[in-house]
TrEMBL record:
<comment type="subunit">
    <text>Homodimer.</text>
</comment>
<protein>
    <recommendedName>
        <fullName>xanthine dehydrogenase</fullName>
        <ecNumber>1.17.1.4</ecNumber>
    </recommendedName>
</protein>
<keyword id="KW-0285">Flavoprotein</keyword>
<dbReference type="InterPro" id="IPR036884">
    <property type="entry name" value="2Fe-2S-bd_dom_sf"/>
</dbReference>
<feature type="binding site">
    <location>
        <begin position="200"/>
        <end position="207"/>
    </location>
    <ligand>
        <name>FAD</name>
    </ligand>
</feature>
<dbReference type="InterPro" id="IPR016167">
    <property type="entry name" value="FAD-bd_PCMH_sub1"/>
</dbReference>
<dbReference type="InterPro" id="IPR005107">
    <property type="entry name" value="CO_DH_flav_C"/>
</dbReference>
<feature type="domain" description="FAD-binding PCMH-type">
    <location>
        <begin position="172"/>
        <end position="358"/>
    </location>
</feature>
<dbReference type="InterPro" id="IPR037165">
    <property type="entry name" value="AldOxase/xan_DH_Mopterin-bd_sf"/>
</dbReference>
<dbReference type="GO" id="GO:0051537">
    <property type="term" value="F:2 iron, 2 sulfur cluster binding"/>
</dbReference>
<dbReference type="Pfam" id="PF03450">
    <property type="entry name" value="CO_deh_flav_C"/>
</dbReference>
<dbReference type="InterPro" id="IPR016169">
    <property type="entry name" value="FAD-bd_PCMH_sub2"/>
</dbReference>
<keyword id="KW-0576">Peroxisome</keyword>
<feature type="binding site">
    <location>
        <position position="857"/>
    </location>
    <ligand>
        <name>Mo-molybdopterin</name>
    </ligand>
</feature>
<feature type="binding site">
    <location>
        <position position="348"/>
    </location>
    <ligand>
        <name>FAD</name>
    </ligand>
</feature>
<feature type="binding site">
    <location>
        <position position="366"/>
    </location>
    <ligand>
        <name>FAD</name>
    </ligand>
</feature>
<feature type="region of interest" description="Disordered">
    <location>
        <begin position="499"/>
        <end position="526"/>
    </location>
</feature>
Length: 1276
């Protein structure tokens, strides 16, 4: 965050992206980092404390960004509205929390200062009617450090008094770039004349990405941030002039004030631009990005250029030699990408935005993959001017972005519309004209051709209705056709109230000891360290003397022979030490025991992103630059990319199998109806906030190596490291302090980075580190397995399922790292929550030329469960009955037998459903949804319930279902140190284990500490995952602590009035060991896939969710209006952590089924590898009302203290969003006379939603026959 003094000597505070802010640009500004506002060692800032206590941090990697975004907002506005808080987070991402606790933590700062439950707040209830306890985020302000603006850091006086900071020409010379910062327009024009090819920047939001991600070097950079003439804003009689360096945040503020001052008819252009700015990037970008930069980058999806062109804006240009000139912003101004009529020596001084006329209307439209902080798929600026006192068109502007390299103007359509009345017959004509004006070939960059063209027509239809509504209201035109009430929904501007939420759980008994932390809601033990920036992640570790940096060299071909590798140019660069390849591996080049994949590809590459070698250099930037200079010559081979390709080529891995239950033929014979269907589920990027990172430190003797690696599988890491280095495993110590998010992606895929780093460290006997950039991580790491499910289901006329035959195809990528286990988990979960007497499930693993897909939260279960829910909804549509009726009819009951021959015991499915129906008020809301849909044609609502039955354990033979812990008690002060085999990655494992120890040892949690996970302390640890860590490691801690208590028992009996420290000291003086291990293996588990017998899961976790959505049938956008969840967690070890896991899993699942769509080029390269093009859910995507409750009275005899694993089971409750969307689409299709039975693949992107809502606009653009063109991207 950067405070800055403006021309009025007022200090403004801006949250910015540090990765895009050149140090030179900060000269004269005060920079505030997370460490500067508070510390656990001194005093926490109230923002830090409230986010920590609200459990607004899990893995913690994103937390400093949220803290500083909130801090900047509060410095500028001490009492913001909740809507402003949510807006301030538009540029922040979190993969763990689900955002709700972060928002709840900040509610007390807002002007509303309301509990997240809104009117249902317990403070508004009658005394004695409080029911269950609400989450502690709503507790009394007296529990927190009070706000005090006088204690905030002031703007440094030396910066206030020293005018040289902003009045002098500054020059900074670097190794490859010279940076100029002029202080006057004359200086700027002089520099532009001297360096005509110099890049001109203000916010660096475009150029910064190019420099970082694409390694583009600009020798001369000129910053126009401090030129006063470019920062001016002038309001004139007919226009507002905005300086070229004015930021988009300032532009928004200026236009809002102007629209409030001007008559409504004069500010219509301003309002259109303001509305577009709502969805333009995030505040961190808007705070620095400038108007001129947005115009001159000429991006095809520029949100503002379409409106600047449509509204008739013009610009003032200036150069040293030619002085000033003015040019209109029209189709002639924008020539191509980064090319305009602006000459090399010219500078854009200002843009002039005219006032609108009384009979003139203008609106902007934008459709993106995600509503907030996303680039447009298509955007538009549309304006119409009517003849005086009529509805006859005088002239129009129709400008569209996202269809070509620059914004396109539909000239012919506008010309043909002149003289036409604004009437319904204009719409079909205009749609035809627009289609002719704006053609788009099937192989156009960006793909989605039919969707993009449909959006053009849909945007105009929205514009037509909106303008028609205005004409009706002002009675302009003779006569004016009315807008039907059912069409009114097409005119509504998107509005979302601040989110509200409820978290309900049972409190601990009144007589539970205060020292007994089990069952109490507590934030994670490291929450304060994470909110203050003190939590250390791997790349935060200080560099040792002589430490080296490594960058991977990866394949650019999907399948090819390696003919030659030339690293000479790279090796000649300064600071470069070596290029490593398979010849440098001292041990095995095969990643045993994980798979048969190579560390460095030796002869053949099997995917784009496969590691071929690595550059080792003195600095990260040197190694990155050198890695791009390594030349690899290939001979390309045929590549298989998609599941369909693999089926056609019969490219399969071994490991597939078939599970059979009952008599399938008999089941189909007994069925009244048989239905067949298909469903595709895309992959998903893990998108953990901390990318793959390893730091290796040789210890100098006996081949010892200390490895700091962000892995969920330290034991496996130790084994593969020993194999690669050719040393015994006891020479390798893997240390894991914390992981900045994992979700399964840091189990074995972490070794792709770790092993080259270890090889380099051994070769040079020096510390070596590597942390991937985001685009590298996404390219290399794989993700969730894409699946194709084909099914045939037989059922009675009442809807009872009789038989199900399913074939599941998974896309493994080029190796089977986790694919066998993922497929097996999908197969055993394909029954979902439903008893089906006759089943056959066949699983096939497809071998393709993509990066190996990996374990991911749910480990195949989401794909299997998703198929079962799709079957239920298709059958319900076929029988024309409510899906809920079908679900209830077929749901598992107590002791029901699964197709893998395990009985479902302690079955709480019905209990979850009953509680959910009451909590969600489903019956009433179902009626309300139907009424809404009957009254609205272009907005539709849907509501759906999905249950879940999730088996918890590692599965297979059961060998992984074991855990160990090491307990130390220190005699000096009685403090306890615990080490265990699990890794902390935000799931609160350390915290729960400390709570368990507090109960057994009967001491407060403040006396117990967990430092890190280390293979030298707890060997042979099971990988952290499968929602089982609290079960196995919790029991190991319990048993270890019980051993300690048994040893202390004689001393407790001898001194019953003594304190813990007295008993520990007495035992030590009596020479009793105060250190022990605890070990636990889950009893009875073990499954034999060959015979389909044994206990596959230790127990089942159950849950149910009800979600209501609203879709825009014309664009495909959607909003989640409300979600209610009831989760059976047994008796929660920590309700605050478990609720956080439920919410975080739900939102990650929401991304899986709606937003996150991995797109591969036909050559096999991942196209959307970064936050700019791959969109995970943001703060604005959480349900408008988000209620989470635990199932009342639940227990679990098969896990510690009757608790249940909760990390993965809630994820597929997000299927309720998908099927609510499908429900809404069904209504739209019914209005259009289309079948309610239709295929909708996952994710339900805006494209798929829009094109499923078939109407007169989609009919314009029928899809081309596959195989007749080369698509821009393929679905793996």
């Amino acid at each position: 965050m950067k405070p800055r003094r403006n021309l009025n000597k007022k200090t403004n505070h801006y949250a910015i992206n540090a990765c895009l802010a050149p140090v030179c640009s900060l000269h004269g500004l005060a920079v505030t980092t997370i460490e500067g506002i508070g510390s656990s060692k001194t005093r926490l800032h109230p923002v830090q404390e409230r986010i920590a206590k609200a459990n607004g941090t899990q893995c913690g990697f994103c937390t400093p960004g949220f803290v500083l975004s909130a801090y900047a907002l509060l410095r500028n506005k001490p009492k913001p509205s909740m809507k402003e808080v949510e807006k301030s987070f538009q540029g922040n991402l979190c993969r763990c929390t689900g955002y709700r606790p972060i928002l709840d933590g900040l509610r007390p700062f807002t002007e509303e200062n309301l509990c997240g439950r809104g009117k249902e707040c317990c403070r508004n209830r009658e005394s004695g009617d409080l029911g269950e306890v609400p989450a502690p985020a709503s507790c009394s302000p007296s529990a927190y450090v009070p706000e005090d603006q006088t204690q905030e850091p002031i703007f440094p006086p030396e910066l206030q008094l020293q005018h040289d900071f902003s009045s002098k020409l500054l020059v900074f010379k670097g190794e490859r770039t010279t940076w100029y910062r002029p202080a006057t327009l004359d200086q700027l024009l002089e520099l532009k004349a001297q360096y005509p090819e110099a890049i001109l920047i203000t916010g660096n939001t475009e150029i910064g990405i190019e420099v970082r991600a694409r390694n583009i070097c600009y020798p001369v950079v000129i910053s126009a941030r401090h030129v006063p003439e470019l920062l001016q804003v002038k309001e004139e009689d007919s226009q507002i002039s905005i300086g070229g360096s004015v930021t988009l945040s300032t532009l928004e503020e200026v236009l809002i004030k102007a629209s409030e001052r001007l008559p409504e008819f004069q500010s219509r252009f301003h309002v259109a631009i303001i509305e577009m700015l709502r969805w333009f990037a995030g505040p961190q970008i808007r705070n620095v990005a400038c108007v001129a930069g947005n115009i001159l980058t000429t991006r095809r999806i520029s949100d503002l250029n379409t409106l600047f062109i449509a509204t008739g804006c013009y610009v003032t240009l200036a150069s040293k030699d030619q002085g000033q000139r003015k040019l209109p912003l029209d189709h002639n101004f924008f020539i191509s990408q980064r090319k305009t009529l602006v000459q090399e020596k010219e500078v854009l001084v200002a843009v002039h935005i005219p006032y609108s006329k009384k009979n003139e209307y203008c609106y902007g439209y934008k459709q993106a993959q995600r509503r907030e902080d996303d680039v447009a798929i298509v955007n538009a600026g549309i304006r119409v001017l009517f003849q005086d006192n009529s509805n006859v068109i005088d002239n129009m502007s129709l400008v569209f972005g996202g269809l070509a390299t620059t914004s396109l103007v539909a000239h012919n359509a506008a010309k043909q519309a002149q003289g036409r009345r604004w009437a319904d017959d204009l719409v079909p004509d205009m749609c035809r004209w627009l289609a002719d004006d704006l053609p788009l070939s099937q192989d156009a960059p960006g793909g989605q051709v039919e969707y993009r063209r449909t959006l053009v027509s849909s945007f105009f239809f929205k514009f037509y209705l909106t303008v028609q509504l205005h004409l009706m209201q002002c009675k302009q035109g003779q006569p004016a056709p009315k807008v039907l009430s059912s069409d009114m929904s097409a005119t509504h501007v998107f509005h979302r109230d601040p989110s509200r939420s409820t978290q309900v759980y049972e409190d601990v008994p009144d007589d539970q000891s205060l020292d007994d932390a089990v069952g109490r809601p507590m934030p994670t033990m490291s929450s304060v360290q994470q909110t203050t920036g003190e939590a250390q992640y791997y790349d935060d570790m200080p560099c040792a003397d002589g430490e080296l940096f490594l960058t991977l060299v990866t394949s650019t071909k999907a399948h090819a022979k390696i003919l030659s590798i030339d690293a000479n140019e790279a090796l000649a660069m300064p600071g470069v030490h070596a290029f490593l390849c398979h010849k440098d591996v001292p041990g095995s080049n095969i990643k045993r025991p994980v798979n048969e994949d190579e560390i460095f590809a030796s002869e053949e590459v099997h995917c784009i992103g496969q590691v071929i070698g690595a550059i080792v250099a003195n600095s990260r930037i040197q190694s990155q630059r050198a890695a791009k200079k390594v030349k690899v010559e290939y001979k390309e081979l045929p590549a298989v990319l998609t599941i369909e390709d693999a089926i056609k080529a019969e490219s399969f891995f071994p490991g597939g199998r078939t599970i059979v239950k009952g008599d399938l033929d008999k089941g189909f014979g007994q069925s009244d109806h048989v239905l067949e269907g298909e469903l595709r589920m895309s992959g998903q990027s893990h998108f953990y906030l901390e990318t793959h990172v390893t730091r290796a430190v040789p210890r100098g003797e006996d081949g010892e190596m200390e490895v700091f690696c962000a892995t969920q599988a330290p034991h496996f890491a130790q084994a593969v490291a020993a194999e690669a280095l050719g040393v015994p495993a006891n020479r390798i110590n893997i240390r894991v302090k914390r992981i900045g998010g994992g979700f399964g992606g840091k189990q074995t895929r972490a070794f792709v980075v770790m092993l080259p780093v270890l090889i380099a460290a051994k070769k040079f006997n020096r510390p070596v580190r590597c942390m991937l950039d985001r685009h590298e991580d996404m390219l290399i790491s794989g993700g969730r397995h894409p699946f194709l499910g084909k099914y045939k289901v037989g059922f009675s006329k009442e809807g009872r399922l009789e038989a199900l035959d399913v074939t599941l195809y998974s896309n493994a990528g080029h190796s089977t790292e986790a694919s066998v286990g993922v497929l097996d988990k999908a197969m055993v979960n394909v029954d979902g929550s439903y008893f089906i007497p006759n089943m056959r499930v066949t699983g096939i693993i497809c071998k393709t030329n993509l990066p190996s897909n990996a374990a991911f939260r749910g480990y195949g279960s989401p794909q299997g469960i998703f198929v079962s829910e799709n079957v239920m909804f298709d059958v319900a549509a076929y029988l024309d009955i409510a899906p809920l009726e079908l679900q209830a009819l077929n749901m598992y009951k107590e002791n029901g037998l699964t197709h893998y021959n395990q009985h479902v015991t302690n079955c709480n499915l019905q209990g979850c459903l009953d509680q959910l129906l009451e909590q969600s008020n489903y019956v009433t809301r179902r009626t309300e949804v139907d009424v809404f849909n009957s009254e609205n044609r272009w907005k539709k609502r849907g509501i759906a319930i999905t249950p879940t039955k999730y088996g918890v354990s590692y599965g297979g033979s059961g060998f992984l279902d074991q855990g160990a812990a090491l307990i130390h008690v220190y005699q000096g002060d009685g403090s306890v140190l615990i080490t265990h085999g699990g890794t902390e990655m935000g799931q609160g494992l350390h915290t729960k284990l400390i709570q368990i120890a507090s109960r057994v040892l009967k001491i407060p949690v403040s006396k117990i500490h967990i430092s890190e996970t280390s293979t030298s302390l707890v060997p042979n640890a099971t990988v952290s995952g499968a929602s089982s860590c609290s079960d196995i490691f919790g029991m190991a801690v319990l048993r270890g602590c019980e051993i300690i208590m048994d040893r202390l028992e004689p001393y407790i009996d001898a001194n019953p009035d003594g304190a813990w420290e007295d008993w520990v000291r007495a035992a030590y003086m009596d020479r009793v060991s105060l250190s022990t291990t605890g070990f636990y293996k889950t009893p009875d588990v073990g499954y034999d896939p060959k015979t389909n017998t044994g206990m596959r899961f230790n127990y089942f976790t159950f849950g149910a969710a009800c979600t209501e959505v609203e879709i825009d049938c014309l664009t495909g956008s959607h909003v989640v209006r409300r979600t209610d969840i009831v989760m059976d967690v047994g008796k929660s070890l920590n309700p605050m952590i478990d609720i956080g896991q439920i919410e975080g899993a739900f939102l990650q699942g929401y991304g899986f089924v709606t937003l996150e769509h991995l797109k591969y080029s036909p050559e096999g390269s991942l196209l959307n590898r970064g936050p700019g093009s791959y969109k995970i859910p943001g703060c604005g995507d959480i349900p408008g009302v988000f209620n989470v409750s635990f199932l009342k009275g639940a227990s679990n005899p098969r896990a510690i203290y009757s608790s249940k694993g909760v990390g993965e089971p809630p994820l597929m409750l997000a299927a309720s969003v998908f099927y609510a969307i499908k429900d809404a689409i069904s209504s739209a299709r019914a209005d259009a006379g289309k079948s309610r039975t239709f295929r909708l693949d996952s994710p339900a992107t805006s494209e798929r939603i829009r094109m499923a809502c078939e109407d007169q606009f989609t009919k314009q653009f029928p899809p081309s026959e596959p195989g007749t063109f080369k698509p821009w991207f393929v679905n793996a």
